[in-house]
């Protein structure tokens, strides 16, 4: 479900947007533990023209249901994730503006190309939200501990737990091989 911003609508230099994003269009990317509470999230922000670059800054907001990975309590997680993205004209990324030049760590703005007609804010907002989601969401930490039923062991029901590469049988076998 795209959230298009037409370049023609940016004739004044900036454009504010606030659009719904249907939960059913991204529910598959959330994994089994996270379920959207609302039928739609909101994606809002400002698009700005900077020469032939379109800069978009915004937030994606909504609420997710999840099950604490420690105690199994059903809980809710508010989502309010900021994103920042620049769209450059087609062909520009192959020229001076390479993604490599963004790897200096000082200014980590995502870049992609656009077709000159419109940019789509939805994938940018979604990627930002998904990257920032906790891998194993649990009750919020407090002085008494994160939750009453806190277990040192994570619950694994319904989830694929990450295998520590160093603990896998393959890694153990490889350690025995003398190089
Ligand atoms: Zn818990």
Overview of the structural elements:
The structure is a single chain. This protein is mainly β and 179 residues long. 10% of the residues lie in helices and 36% in strands. It has two helices and eight strands, in the order ββββββββαα. It has helices at residues 122-131, 169-176; strands at residues 4-6, 14-22, 35-36, 40-50, 53-67, 74-89, 110-114, 118-120. The model is unreliable at 97-106 and 158-163 (pLDDT under 50). The structure holds zinc ion. Residues 68, 70-71, 73, 138-139, 146-147 line the site of zinc ion (ZN).
- Please identify the structural class as seen in this structure: mainly beta
N-to-C span? 51 Å
Number of continuous helical runs = 2
Tell me how many strands there are: 8
Q: Main beta sheet: strand number and arrangement?
A: 6 strands, mixed
Extract low-pLDDT stretches: 97-106, 158-163
Strand content: 35-45%
Radius of gyration, whole Å: 21 Å
Give the mean pLDDT. 82
Q: What is the total number of structural domains?
A: 1
Written as H for each helix and E for each strand, in order along the chain, the element string is: EEEEEEEEHH
Helix content: 10-25%
Q: Can you list the ligands bound to this structure? A: zinc ion
Overall geometry:
extended
């Amino acid at each position: 479900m795209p959230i298009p911003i037409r370049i023609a609508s940016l004739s004044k230099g900036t454009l504010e947007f606030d659009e719904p994003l249907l939960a059913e269009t991204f529910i598959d990317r959330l994994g089994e533990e996270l379920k959207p509470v609302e039928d739609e999230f909101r994606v809002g922000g400002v698009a700005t023209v900077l020469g032939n670059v379109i800069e978009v800054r915004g937030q994606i907001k909504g609420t997710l249901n999840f099950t604490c990975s420690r105690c199994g309590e059903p809980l809710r997680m508010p989502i309010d994730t900021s994103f920042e993205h620049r769209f450059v004209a087609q062909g520009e990324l192959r020229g001076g503006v390479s993604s490599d030049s963004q790897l200096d760590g000082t200014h980590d703005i995502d870049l992609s190309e656009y077709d000159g007609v419109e940019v789509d804010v939805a994938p940018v907002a979604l990627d930002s939200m998904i990257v920032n989601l906790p891998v194993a969401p649990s009750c919020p930490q407090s002085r008494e501990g994160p939750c009453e039923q806190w277990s040192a062991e994570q619950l694994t029901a319904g989830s694929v737990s990450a295998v520590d590469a160093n603990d896998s049988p393959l890694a153990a076998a490889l350690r025995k091989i003398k190089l």
